[in-house]
Amino acid sequence: MIHKIIIPTPFAVGDVNAYLIKGDVLTLVDAGPKTEQALVALKNGINEAGYELDDIEQVILSHHHPDHSGWIEAFEKAQILGHEYNQVWLRKDQAFLSYHDEFYYKCLVEEGVPKQYLKWIEKMRRPLNFIGNRSLDAVLKEGDTIPGHPYMQVLETLGHAQSHISLWDEQNGVLIGGDLILEKISSNPLIEPPLDKSAPRPKSMLQYNEALKRVQALGVQKVYSGHGNEVFGVADLISSRLVRQRERALHVLEMMKDGEKTIFELTQRLFPKVYEKELGLTLSETIGQIDYLMDENLIQEKRTDEGILLYEQA
User: Fold this and answer.
1) What's the total number of domains in the chain?
2) Helix, strand or coil, per DSSP, at residue 142
């Protein structure tokens, strides 16, 4: 049995969902943001299912983003499980956070972002206050079976986050999908630094598209999503979203018909009203379309002496 708990957040995305799964082990998937309102909602939701906080035996994180990972330390008797990428965020690892800032600074320079916007890097850390302060007890990897739920398997579904996993119940055709598939909107594939500093930047849009195609091929009948209602008609929804994403990429390609452009210039054209307010999200979206076009060999890239990347039609 899966019991849904709706939790308020202070973020623009609105409410977030957690899920209580009854089995040989009482499991909670996701734990809301670290606010008092969220903790009250979590307690009430668990109480409605007939349990207390201390009854929860394990908490599984779909990913590390602050609206999903806030209250892990409220479950003192539970094991905390998730993808290894969660760990540096939960530990507030200072070496990683310094590298995180360096990674984004390099990205912003490459994207041709003017100097007055470089202070945006400071905003990237603000959600840390809403993330929990407890390490993982165990790492979940692709293909693992969820302890206490032998019918549930871990799928690594990267793209929206480099820590993102989904839980697949093949027997019932059900996926607990975090932010992979939402009813009303497509998730933004966010640019995040790789754990391995020597590794190339993860191409989040391509990862996200592959995760969607994989779920489509599985024949998922129902998705318990991280926000909003459960999702049905999954295969058709994925098909339409992949088509729309390609259309957006071709729209970006059209923007280069009059010559080469930086990521920042394309972002200004794509999101003229919101790019300053939501610079991180809008740059991520633009980079995703560029990665897609590069993968399709529709554009080419060159680097200026100042380290800025320029893109033009191939």
Assistant:
1) 1
2) coil
